[in-house]
Amino acid sequence: MKDTKIVKIFKSFSSTEIKQFEKLLKSPYFSKGRNLLPLFYELKKYYPVFKSNNLKRQEIYKNLFPAEKYNDQKLRVLISELHAMCLEYLIYDQLNKDQHYKNKFLTEALFRKKLFGDLEKQFKVSINFLESGKNDSFEYYLSRFFVERTMCFYTIETNNSIKYPESYMKFSRTFLKSSIIQLLLNYSEMSSYRFNFITDEEKAAHNYLFKAIDFKKIYKLITFDNEDEKKIFGLYYYAYMLIVNKNLSDYYSLKKIFFEIKDKFLTNENRRLIYAKLMNFLSISPDEQFKIEAFELYKKMLEDDEAVMNEGAYFGRTHFRNVLNLAITLGEIQWAENFVNTYKSKLNPAESENMLNFSFGHIYFWKKEFGKSLEYLSKVKFGFATFKEDVNTLTLMNFYELGMYEEALSLADSFKRTFKRTPPMHEVLYTDHKNFLIYYPLLLNARIYSKTDDLTMVENLSEKSVNLKVKKWVEEKIKEIKKHTPAN
Fold first, then answer.
1. Fewer CB within 10 A of the terminal residue: the chain, N end or C end?
2. What is the Cα Rg of the chain in Å?
3. 109 Cβ neighbours under 8 A, 6+ residues apart
4. Sign of the torsion angle spanned by Cα atoms 230, 304, 344, 356
5. What sections of 191-247 are H helices per DSSP?
6. 248-265 and 227-245 helices, crossing angle to 10°
7. Please, what is the Cα angle at 307 between 304 and 308, to 5 degrees?
C-alpha cells in the first residue's frame, strides 16, 4: 500500500491538514455515505512516513473487520471513498483559504437571486477586504474585476444612471490592469522550460503577441490609483524586462522596487516569484560575485520565512537545492550543513528523504568523506528535474577521489549515452553537463596514466562552466596531476 494514491495524498497533508480532514469526516454534512473514520484512523497510525511493514491491505482489513475473511473488493471501495473525501477536503480547504473567490461567488449569487440589500453590503465587504490586503497580484485585480463587473450589472439592473458611468470607469480600469498583469506574468511562463511543451505554431503566436505590445508605453498611459500601485506595476514590468533584456540595470531596478514594497504589498507567492526572478538572472552567470549576491539574497529570503514556504507550509525543493548548492559553491560547507539540519523538518514529507540524501551526498563530498557521500547519493531517486545529472556528476567525482576507475569509466560511458536535454534544463546547464562528459574521461586518464597531454582541453572546457564548485574541483585536480607528473 505504500505507493497507493491514498497513501500519497495522506503523505502530502501537513499535521494541521490531517486534523482538519478528520473534522470533515466527522461532519454529517460531508460524510453522507459510509463511516470512513475507522479506515482513516488505521491509516493515520502510519502518518507521516508510511513505512511500517504492517502497512498491508490484509493487516488493515483485519483491524477493521476482525470477524470477517479478507475481502479485497470491499477494502478497495472503502479506500476509493476515502480518497474521494480527501479530494473533497482539498476543494473545501482551498476555497476556505481564498477569500477572493468566496467574495466573488457570494456577490454573484446575491445578484442572481436579486437580493440587492445584501448585495450592497457585500460590495462594501468585498472592496474593504481587497483594500485591506495585499494588492500586488493578478488575483487581486481579477477579484476587483469580478466585483466591479457585478456592480456594473447591478447599476444596469436597478436603472441607476447616476452611478453607472463611475461604476463602468472603475470596471474598465481594473480590466486593463488585470489584463496587463496577467500578460506580464504569462511572459514569465513563456520564458520557462514549460514553454517547450507547446507547438511551434503556438510559440510563434505567443511571440507575435508580446512583440506587438508596447508594455513601456502602456505603463506610462495607465491611470494608477497612487504611487504604491505604480510601483507594483513597475515590479512586474522590470521582471518582464529582465527576462527580455537580461540587463544588469533591470536587475537592480527590480531588486530596488522589490525590497521597497515586498513587506507591505506582496503576497507570499509573489515574493517567492520575484526572489526566483532575481536568482534566475544571477544563477546563469559564471561570475563569482553574482554567486555571492545570490547567496546574500537567499539569506534575506530565509529571514522572510513566509516567502520560503510553498503552499501547504513546506520549503520548496527547488529553493532548498539552490540554497544548498550556492553555500557549497562559496565554500560555506558548515553553513550548508546547518541549513539542512535547520530546515529539513519544513520539507514536504513525501520529498524530505530524497532531498536529505541529495543534500548530505553533497555535504559529505565537500567534507572529503567520499564513502559517506556515495552512500547517500546511491539512495537518491531521480524524480526531480536535474537530480540525475547532479547526482551522476558528483558520483563520478567521488569515484575519481576513491580511485574507483572502472566504476568511473562505466558510469561516464552510461551517463554520456543516456544524457539529453530535458525541458526543465537551462541551455547553459545543458552545455555544462555536456562539456563535463567530454573532459571528465580525459581528466581521469591523465590521473591514471600520469599524462598531461589532454589537460589543456580539460582546462578550456571547464573554464566555461557556470558550476563553480565543479570548476574549482577540476582546477584542483589538474594542479594535483601536474604536481605528481614528471616533466618530459
1. C
2. 28
3. none
4. positive
5. 200-212, 215-221, 227-245
6. 140
7. 90
The secondary structure of residue 469, as a DSSP letter, is: H
Return the H-helix or E-strand segment holding 314: strand 314-315
Give CA–CA dist 2/8, Å, rounded.
8
Residue 314 phi/psi, 5-degree rounding, is: -110, 150
User: Which residues have CB under 8 Å from 346's CB, separation 6+?
Assistant: 308, 309, 313, 314, 315
For residue 362, count other CB atoms closer than 10 A to its CB.
26
Q: Which residue in 325, 347, 372, 355 sits closest to 471, CA to CA?
A: 325
**Model confidence, pTM:** 0.66
DSSP category for residue 17: H
Q: Which helix or strand (DSSP H or E) is residue 309 part of?
A: strand 309-310
Give the phi and the psi of residue 310 in degrees, each rounded to 5: -80, 175
Burial of 187 (0-12, 13-18, 19+ CB in 10 A): buried
Q: Let me know: does 120 contact 110? Beta carbons within 8 Å.
A: no
Of 209, 219, 212, nearest to 239 by C-alpha is 219
Count of helix runs (H) and strand runs (E) in the chain: 25, 2
pLDDT (tens digit per residue) in 380-439: 987 766 788 889 999 999 999 999 999 999 999 998 888 876 655 667 778 888 888 888
Give pLDDT tens digits for 330-365.
Answer: 899 999 999 999 999 888 888 899 999 999 999 999
CB 366 within 8 A of CB 328: yes
In sequence order, the 6+-apart residues with CB closer than 8 A to the CB of 82 are: 6, 36, 39, 40, 43
Q: Is 45 helix (H, G, I), strand (E, B) or coil?
A: coil
Taking residues 224-252, report their average pLDDT. 88
Scanning 65-199, the segments in alpha helix (DSSP H) are: 72-97, 99-112, 116-132, 138-157, 164-190
Using DSSP, state whether 431 is helix, strand or coil.
helix
pLDDT in tens, 126-140: 988 888 865 666 677
**427-449 and 387-402 are packed helices; what angle lies between their axes, rounded to 10 degrees?**
10
How many Cβ atoms are within 10 Å of 26's Cβ, its own excluded?
A: 13
The three-class DSSP label of residue 315 is strand
Residue 399: DSSP 8-state: H
Q: How many CB atoms lie within 10 A of CB 65?
A: 14
Q: What is the grid cell recorded at 177? A: 490592469
Cis peptide before 48 (omega within 30 of 0): yes
pLDDT at 136: 62
